[in-house]
Amino acid sequence: MAISSVKNFDIKNLTSFKIGGKISEVFFPENIEEFTQILKENPEIKVFGNLSNTLISTLGYDGKIILTTKMTAIQIDGTHVIADCGVKGPKLSQTACENNLSGFEFMIGFPGSVGGEVFMNASAHGQCISDKLVSVTCFTREGKIVKYSKEEMDFEYRKSRCPKDNLIVLQAEFELKTKPQEEIKAKMDENLEFRKSHQPLLNLPNCGSIFKNPQNDSAGRLLDSIGAKNFSIGGARVWENHANFIVNDNNGTSTDILQLMFKMYTEVKNKYNIELSPEIIFLGGADEKENELWQTMKK
What we know:
This protein has helices at residues 32-41, 89-98, 114-119, 162-165, 181-198, 219-225, 254-272, 288-298, and strands at residues 5-10, 22-27, 46-48, 54-56, 61-67, 74-77, 80-84, 101-102, 123-124, 127-128, 133-139, 145-149, 168-175, 177-178, 232-233, 236-238, 246-248, 281-283.
């Protein structure tokens, strides 16, 4: 089975940050069979969804990646929902609502896709992806397809077993509850309004929250207290309404973003002896300074 790919792919406009150079080769599988074939033929390949929480180096990436944006199948049987990894959060939320199913209202404003949301156990408004999850079908580092129950996924705040065991999410299975459509829609509208007032819209290129909340605290509070809302480097600045968001305001580069992140990280560490952990992902490799900044924050 020949699967199409694009070489020297200019990735910039597919990322939420609107930053990134050329990728050596990008694959766009349309189903699990194609996806697993690419993974088996390219064991070291990196996998991404909607690139909504990913910073890609302005110098690009000298390697192959998979984008799951064409894996969009959703199956609904009563209250049972199965979604492929590339399904976007808002699409899943709307589809559930159309079928009088409640449990995905919090995803209406999420720019990401199911694979990434399961990988990091995405959450908002008191709900998280694992709440209604039954099982996840993953591709393992041994090259097998394995179905894990919710309990086997080791879900915690912004965590699952995926990074630790190098699991790649192929598909997720959920059990929702029926509710009147008006109630579901009202909650979705409320969540959207909250997002609009508390997070920058995507016409200001951004990647959502930059740092994870430390235990029993808020990254936004810590960053606000050190005056981060006044920070800017090059074409990147901290959003004036919330200190845990960076916006690409004026053709910012990946180096601008990483230097700004490092300034935020360092000032919080100096004042509170707390090392914030990045919530976003970085893909680079060609720039030593960028790699050094990233490794310091990720350690």
